[in-house]
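F.,

This is the one I mentioned.
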């Protein structure tokens, strides 16, 4: 145990995430780990969020070099399925060919027209430019050129679409624009080992919400990488969700995580609640997880009841056996960050994928995608959700399928992002001071960012 972990135990005796998680039984090895390497406690300059030159450098050295989540495997499940992923001014067309997944620069080799519209997905037998009808097969080979006698200089055998690296892991399709980048499995570092018992390949996108946010992509994502702000921005959460007692771990350049207990009051909460009151309160947020008349047996916790009923629900409705999963593996927020911009929550009770990226080439705005995953029905009959887009000035509550409680929380985050962005420009200090533990993963994000920015072309 390092010094900061000892401080956390002394500050929240018996109430750290690990303490709460172990009340219902032993933890699996991957959740027993704690990793908090020493850091340089420097301030972080606001120019990293506001300066156009810094943003442009990120586009060259981060987004053109890193593996990025593009879509779920179910988006491109059948031969002919396609999906367009955009990052800044870059755009990639992902297709399912007879040979498997392929990814191409979304640009015609004739006059550069986009082959498919930004953000589009669907099915096509081939790839055809909408301008002059040049066409390619799904494997990227050239199919035809109208009036091809006009192009004697074009060698058809060498006129295939320019490829982008593409690979899939745990149901997630990832792309990398750098042909020299290491394989995805190497980039993932410890993730495959941690997720060995958390298989998301049998899940699908049941809800996909996209929100345009008023802040730099890092500013926007960092609000989801700490809960230091929760008692002040989301005070309604403190009675039933941990915050300052969350566990934060840094495993490698690309991977970190935070672990947050559900149905467990924050140490900042001013209200004493029984286990039954905790369970009844959680019903407000997720009535689908536990029955409305559920009772907490003597000697058990609200968390145990939620996990047990979720196991039963998964077995009865989906034929899935979670009997070997611990309580936190079932219901807690187990949030893994994959550099640069992906958050993955594998627990069945809160199974999400969240992504943050620049909104076009605007350094002051970001796109937030949230994918809610559900198990695929046993009969195989499901429909992948279409994206529902929310403008910056619209509430998350405008999405009918959005839980009202969660919508309110996300709206609160959006309001703060706008104030933080404007405050960065107004600052006389010109930098932020991060905490040694609760905001350590934000500092780590910038440490990894620097490693890429310092690497020569």
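My design for it:
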């Amino acid at each position: 145990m390092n010094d900061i972990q000892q401080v956390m135990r002394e500050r929240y005796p018996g109430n750290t995430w690990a303490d709460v998680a172990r009340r219902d039984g032993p933890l699996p090895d991957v959740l027993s780990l704690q990793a908090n390497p020493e850091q340089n406690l420097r301030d972080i300059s606001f120019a990293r969020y506001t300066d156009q030159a810094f943003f442009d450098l990120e586009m060259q050295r981060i987004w053109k070099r890193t593996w990025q989540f593009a879509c779920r495997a179910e988006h491109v499940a059948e031969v002919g399925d396609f999906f367009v992923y955009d990052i800044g001014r870059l755009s990639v067309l992902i297709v399912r060919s007879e040979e498997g997944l392929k990814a191409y620069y979304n640009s015609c080799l004739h006059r550069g027209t986009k082959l498919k519209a930004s953000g589009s997905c669907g099915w096509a037998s081939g790839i055809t430019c909408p301008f002059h009808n040049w066409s390619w097969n799904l494997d990227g080979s050239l199919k035809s050129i109208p009036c091809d006698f006009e192009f004697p200089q074009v060698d058809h055998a060498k006129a295939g679409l320019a490829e982008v690296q593409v690979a899939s892991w745990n149901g997630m399709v990832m792309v990398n624009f750098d042909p020299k980048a290491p394989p995805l499995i190497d980039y993932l570092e410890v993730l495959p080992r941690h997720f060995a018992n958390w298989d998301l390949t049998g899940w699908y996108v049941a809800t996909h919400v996209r929100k345009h946010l008023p802040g730099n992509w890092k500013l926007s994502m960092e609000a989801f990488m700490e809960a230091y702000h929760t008692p002040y921005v989301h005070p309604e959460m403190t009675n039933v969700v941990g915050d300052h007692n969350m566990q934060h771990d840094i495993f490698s350049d690309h991977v970190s995580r935070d672990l947050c207990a559900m149905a467990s009051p924050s140490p900042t909460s001013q209200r004493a609640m029984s286990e039954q009151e905790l369970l009844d309160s959680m019903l407000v947020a997720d009535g689908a997880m536990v029955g409305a008349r559920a009772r907490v047996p003597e000697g058990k916790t609200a968390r145990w009841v939620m996990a047990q009923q979720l196991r039963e629900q998964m077995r009865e409705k989906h034929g899935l056996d979670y009997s070997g999963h611990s309580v936190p593996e079932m219901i807690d927020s187990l949030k893994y960050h994959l550099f640069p911009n992906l958050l993955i929550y594998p627990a069945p009770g809160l199974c999400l994928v969240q992504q943050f990226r620049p909104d076009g080439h605007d350094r002051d705005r970001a796109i937030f995608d949230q994918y809610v995953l559900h198990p695929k029905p046993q009969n195989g009959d499901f429909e992948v959700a279409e994206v529902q887009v929310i403008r910056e000035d619209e509430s998350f509550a405008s999405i009918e399928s959005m839980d009202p409680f969660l919508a309110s929380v996300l709206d609160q985050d959006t309001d703060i992002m706008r104030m933080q962005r404007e405050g960065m420009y107004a600052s006389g200090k010109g930098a932020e001071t991060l905490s040694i533990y609760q905001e350590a993963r934000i500092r780590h994000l910038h440490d990894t960012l620097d490693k890429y920015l310092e690497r020569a072309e």
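The radius of gyration is 23 Å.

Talk soon.
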